[in-house]
User: What shape does this take?
Amino acid sequence: MFFEFLRLAGQSIAHRKLRSWLTIIGVVIGIAAVVGLMTIGYGFQKTIDDQVSQVFGVDTFVVVNEGSFGGGPHGGSADEYALDLALLNSVEGVKVAAALRERTGFVQGQPDENGERLQGFLPVLGLSPELLTDFESFTGELEVMPSGRLFEPGDVEVAILDYEISQRLRVGVGDTVLVAGDGSNELNLTIIGIMAPPEEDASEREGGFGASFSSSSEGDTISVPYDTMDLLWGPADDVLVTLVRTEPGYDVDEVADRAEETLNDQGSEIMTITYGDISNQIGTITNVINMVLAGIAAISLLVGGVGVMNTMFTSVLERTKEIGVMKAVGAKNSHVLSIFLIESGMMGFVGGVVGSVFGGGLAAGLTWLLNQSESFMGGELLFVLRWDLIAFTLLGSFAIGALAGFFPALRASRLPVVDALRYE
Amino acid sequence: MPLLELSGVTKDYQLGKTTVRALRGLDLEIRSGEVVAIMGPSGSGKSTLMHILGALDRPTKGNALIDASDLAEMKERQLVTLRGKRIGFVFQTFNLIQTLSAQRNVELPMIFQGVSGGERHRRASALLEKVGLGDRVRHRPNELSGGERQRVAIARALANDPEIILADEPTGNLDTETGNAILALLKNLSAQDGKTVILVTHDPEAAEIADRTVRLRDGCVQFDSAGGVA
Assistant: This one.
């Protein structure tokens, strides 16, 4: 019987073409706004998420100071912390952990023509060699000038200098610099590489997270192997960040929790951040944005719904006699209610289908337009058409139509048959 | 036993603040297979009587029995079923659904009774054939003449094979010739199919095809050709 009622409702809609379409347009605008805005929102979310996952991968987590993520007193800047890297490496499920620590040290270069040496306090960065080999997505691609090389396992008394400071210290590959640490600790470090000078458009390059680790933007950093730092300053209590890759088959969140617990038991004050944590944070933010967008769009949908209701009330009034006839020939109240509900629901549904097409098109067009003008956070803004959104929208548009038609339909179904038949 | 039995039927209407008494203790019996013409001036209660005979309305007082069941004791749902299955209506203004073809209009009462699609189609076609509109099944009401529309309405009234056909001024909107053809068709329903046909009419010619004429005045039976003056 449902299909018969569907057919009756369809014939009634088709009979009042102009008015039906005008009503449907109201729904179309609302649905198009909802689908369009939410699709763009999902696109943003996916774009950001993808970029984070490209850097992180699914098997990596970051160890930072307890207070440095999520609005600590220092507003998210990388605070230093103490770390036992060997202990971290021994945690079950950890494949490789690489850390970065920073100190300011007394540095002395080579003498100039007059025999004078430039000396001063400069930032000294200690990098695990694995940082360069295993975590390239974080550090970005580090380039040394020809004739030099990057750190390799086993390197101890070596250093890589930023281009600018190498000029000021008058040193090149093969020369040595003197670096003094705590107390009487000092080492003559052989320079194995000079960082390539930054290009003009360096900011355009994909720096990854690595760019934010070091303060080398000023070009005066001296980088040494992580273990060399021990010789100069003792056990690490000045770590900026640690990257950890887990063994295949281990759950990254479990390993991160275990590492956090192990290290904090030893007196560290650290927390771990996995891709899941960041993704959740992004998800929370973008969901709020999406909800706000959807809320705004829903207002126009509400207007569309009121339009459906208005049309249905008019229709009921117009067809009072028809309702009387239907009842006289054996239609129950529930039949009349169903026919009118299906009719208004159908208008909603058709509006939903057309609106989804328009909304999807709108989002695709806007995405294209945004990608024409500028790159979005260093990448393409993605277009994500979510089928669950479309399915929900179609269901919702039918529901809105039916809901808007409910009171008119109820009125129709309750019309006393004799009065309805007399109606002129 | 009469098919329809009204005794002491009173019907009041609320018209704004005034109560209008349309029927005043009316008694009437109609037997199965009869063709009865109900006549009377405007305001005599013809339409009200028809509504009660057609189970569209209940009496305010008195008993209205259809096949020994009292309308007053029936639930709304039962009245609907009664209308749907046992009574067929023919109206003065045809009252076809404008958006539906002749065929679909005839199918409509069957849809509400849950008759399957194939059976519906077969029966509707046969009924339209019977009223002489075999070649007009796909036409919409506005593509049909008045006489043709009334034939569709009669076919619709017959859709669920009811025992009672209630025709309210069936010739009121038709010219004499067309009207006569419609009356002949209605007469035939009684003669051939044994239907009980009740005509509510002003038209003396319509009354001529009836086995019996009941004349109303001021909500009472003034004259009944079967039983003389009430």
